[in-house]
Amino acid sequence: MEPITLTTAHLLLRPFGPSDADAVRTACQDPEIPRWTSVPSPYTREHAEDFVGRICPEGWRDDLIYNFAVVTRDEGHLVGAMGLVRLERLHTAERQAELGYWTAKEHRGRGLTAEAAGAVVRWALRDLGVERLEWYAEAGNHGSRAVALKAGFRMEGTLRARIVHQGTRRDAWSGSLLPSDIGMDGGAAYLPYPGK
Asked: Can you give the pTM of this predicted structure?
């Protein structure tokens, strides 16, 4: 897929480029990012250059990961990264993808990541035909959970040993979002289980 750009009231979500390497490297020095994500630690300049120069462009080109640089519209400061991952199920009858993100420390708690997530959710459901969008975070990641809830995800529970982080299996919170959850039509009919 050709990379696209999305806009919101305060943000521009655009493809990462080589000029973003310094900002990505700086953001990923915060220990909270590798604590809760798969970002390497320590995070080097080489990691940042590989991410913006190879991983992101190849992800768009090969329809594997659609990563956005989330930047402020007014000054162009990097707020974080937001992406659709596990896209191998997008082009099957499952029509599924997963939303993932991280936020630079100085931009947390301002609602910007939730704003970006809302834009990516609407694009995924409306333009890509996603019928089930999933979210996972290591249990205890309250910030990520808050963003997912604001974006419309419904929490489904705790999955035992779902995430392998630094060689250890950890429990994960899980959530999903269907088009109908945010008032959109879309996709195959859904027949929920009637029992409790």
From this structure: 0.94
